[in-house]
Amino acid sequence: MQNLNKLWKIFKEKFTDTGLAKGAFSAPGRVNLIGEHTDYNQGFVLPMAIEKKIIMLGQLRNDRLVQIFDLGYKVKIKFSLDSLAPLKKDTWANYLMGIVDEIQKTGYILQGANIIFRSDIPQKAGLSSSAALEVVTALTMAKLNSLNIEPIEMARLCQKAENNFVGVACGIMDQYISCLGKKNFALFIDCRSNDYDLIPFRNHNYQIVICNSRVQRGLINSEYNKRREQCKKATEFFAHKLGHKIQALRDVTIDEYKKYQRQLPEVIARRARHVISENYRVQTGVQALREGNFSTFGQLMIESHQSLKDDYEVSCTELDLLVDLALKQEGVLGARMTGAGFGGCTVNLIEKNYIGAFKKSIKNEYKKITGIDLDIYVTQPAEGATVLELR
Ligand code: GLA
Fold first, then answer.
1. Shortest-distance Cα residue to atom 2 of ligand 1
2. What span, in angstroms and rounded, lies between the C-alpha atoms of 52 and 136?
3. Among candidate residues 144, 143, 155, 117, the one with its CA nearest the CA of residue 4
4. Would the CB of 170 count as within 6 Å of ligand 1?
5. Which residues contact 120 (CB under 8 A, 6 or more apart)?
6. Phi, psi values for residue 34, rounded to 5°
7. Ligand 1 mean position to 357 CA, how many Å?
């Protein structure tokens, strides 16, 4: 990632100085350690922010125009704050437009801005590059316009932008962790109350290693939305059986599930079993981490993957292969797919001494079988959205 001086130099080449407020901001991607497809069921998740991030530089304008230069795609787009509609081309800009749209809908008054940004978060890899773009845009626009938007409100605005403007019915996890991530900690988030607990995750013996399969299946959004529908059906079924205490699958216990599962259509029963058991795994996993019991946590990661593969059916051949290959390596405590699925990354918990050997061997094996060069990222839990400079 280039340093800020270099980025300001580029900024000056692209835009004339307006003399108004300017600043530099960042927001990270994330990896989810456990708790997959539970956020939109009002359940529990345990993500951490990663060291890969987006840096955005911006300066206010005296009018209602927003001009953005993406240093990755080398594309400049502009739009007015008065006429916001999703684009068919340069769809990355919809994330930014969606944010200003949601901020304005909340009643805040915005001025236009000149913006450049650079990302080192791999795209379409399930590491939330789009949530990071939403969050860094929200932070940039809020700070330059002197708006006081609390981090949780910011996360909600970003989620709404993705739901309403981009058209993906995502949950709150990605935007939440990109806003609130803390260096050296994973966040245990209750996606009903939006409360969180910091879980220390910088153990000297273990390390999180991310493997990017570099495959991305199509249909991810439609399959994602389909899973949400199936969860809704399961919730309605349990609410009918158990009464109003059931607002979401989060409220169904494993015993209640077992009692009624045979009355559900087979696929819906499996979807519900994943969500209900995954919520249990997150809570057990958090307890294990608090006790420093990394091997139990690793075991729960393995069970989570099985459940996502067989019950929720959101894994794919390459992710299953990566998990299988990882679990054959010495020093690997746990491995699972992370994020929405259908491609993207796996997350692995590994004893530090074995990381070198792990990287070499899994790269070789994966290449031999799939012909694909694996990307591997070793990362500590990083800080969430940050104001780098404001003048
Ligand atoms: C995507 C969504 C999240 C979450 C995960 C699955 O990353 O954006 O809200 O649902 O999938 O856990």
1. 170
2. 13
3. 117
4. yes
5. 1, 52, 53, 54
6. -165, 155
7. 31
Q: Which atom of ligand 1 is nearest to the CA of 37?
A: 12
Strand order in the sheet with 343-351: 332-338, 343-351, 206-216, 375-379
Helix (H, G, I), strand (E, B) or coil at 292: coil
Residue 154's H or E segment, with its range, is helix 151-161
User: Residue 331: how many CB atoms within 10 A of its CB?
Assistant: 17
Q: Which atom of ligand 1 sits closest to the CA of residue 35?
A: 12
- Which residues in the chain come in under a pLDDT of 50? none
Q: What angle do CA 64, 67, 68 make, to 5 degrees?
A: 145
134 lines ligand 1 (CB under 6 A): no
**Chain centre to alpha carbon of residue 195:** 17
**Which residue's CA lies nearest to atom 1 of ligand 1?**
340
Number of neighbouring beta carbons within 10 Å of residue 218: 9
Q: Provide the greatest CA pair distance for the chain.
A: 67
Is 323 within 8 Å of 337 (Cβ atoms)? yes
Report the catalytic residues: 174
171 in contact with ligand 1, CB cutoff 6 A: yes
Query: What is the β-pairing status of strands 375-379 and 75-80?
Result: unpaired
Check if 340 has its Cβ closer than 6 Å to any atom of ligand 1. Answer: yes
Encoded tokens for 348: 């692995």
Contact 57, 24 (CB under 8 A): yes
Phi/psi of residue 54, each to 5°?
Answer: -110, 135
What letter would DSSP give residue 328?
T
Does the CB atom of residue 174 touch ligand 1 within 6 A? yes
